[in-house]
Write a structure and sequence with these properties.
alpha/beta, five-stranded mixed sheet, three-stranded antiparallel sheet, 7 helices, 10 strands
């Protein structure tokens, strides 16, 4: 289930390829205009099909309404939706869970940061956040990303000793920062960050319980040029990269 724009298309394409590579199957795929909240019986159809999970790339009010309607239809059918067919997302964060009300718990979210990470750096960061922005709820991945970006920029400026774009861009290559989420390293080639992915399950307290995290940092592949589908004989598709 996605909002009809490129972020949702690409997320769903990547997941579709990952599922296909391990013998999984996409039961259905639908897109809606951004902001649309009329799902015309689709939650009922999903409950009837009972997929293993529902991957949601809807954003904003569309996402919140869909999750609430899916939960209601599952309850009406006597199905425990969070355990039978959980909603999975790459964007659902602590900032949005309060908008789900009584339906906040039991959703899976993939992110590099959750406010429940137990590190001294995150305790310091969430303490600063709560002092200034507690009225906005818990710190989220977007807040932490802004914090990390500012520190990476400051470190690059200090290393470059020059404020020109070229000097700062060269200086940021390979920079490391111990962020609230853990170590972050800027890749030398593409200037994106190596980070540790995690999966969290939402709680009724509008937080996430971390249920899985990568053992090591994962190097960034923002344009999917390091993935070679032709090296996998079972994949019968061709990706052209210009």
């Amino acid at each position: 289930m996605g909002s009809n724009y490129i972020w949702a298309w690409e997320n769903n394409r990547i997941l579709r390829e990952a599922l296909s590579s391990v013998g999984g199957e996409v039961v259905g795929e639908r897109y809606f205009p951004i902001g649309d909240t009329d799902f015309a019986g689709l939650p009922e159809a999903i409950v009837a099909d009972q997929p293993d999970f529902v991957f949601v790339t809807l954003i904003g009010d569309s996402c919140y309404r869909f999750i609430q309607e899916l939960r209601r239809q599952a309850d009406a059918a006597g199905i425990d939706q969070p355990s039978v067919m959980p909603v999975a997302s790459c964007s659902l964060s602590e900032a949005e869970l309060p908008l789900l009300g009584d339906d906040a718990a039991g959703h899976l979210s993939s992110s590099v940061y959750f406010s429940s990470i137990d590190t001294p750096q995150n305790q310091h960061f969430t303490g600063l956040w709560n002092q200034q922005f507690s009225h906005l709820g818990r710190a989220s991945a977007d807040a932490e990303a802004s914090f990390v970006a500012i520190h990476l920029l400051a470190n690059a400026l200090e290393k470059a000793a020059d404020t020109s774009l070229e000097a700062v861009r060269d200086a940021v290559r390979g920079i490391e920062f111990l962020a609230p989420q853990g170590p972050v390293t800027v890749n030398q080639e593409n200037l994106h960050c190596a980070m540790r992915p995690r999966i969290g399950r939402s709680t009724q307290d509008c937080d996430f319980q971390i249920i899985h995290e990568a053992r090591d940092l994962v190097q960034p592949d923002p344009y999917l040029v390091w993935v070679d589908p032709m090296s996998e004989p079972e994949n019968d598709y061709l990706r052209v990269v210009k």
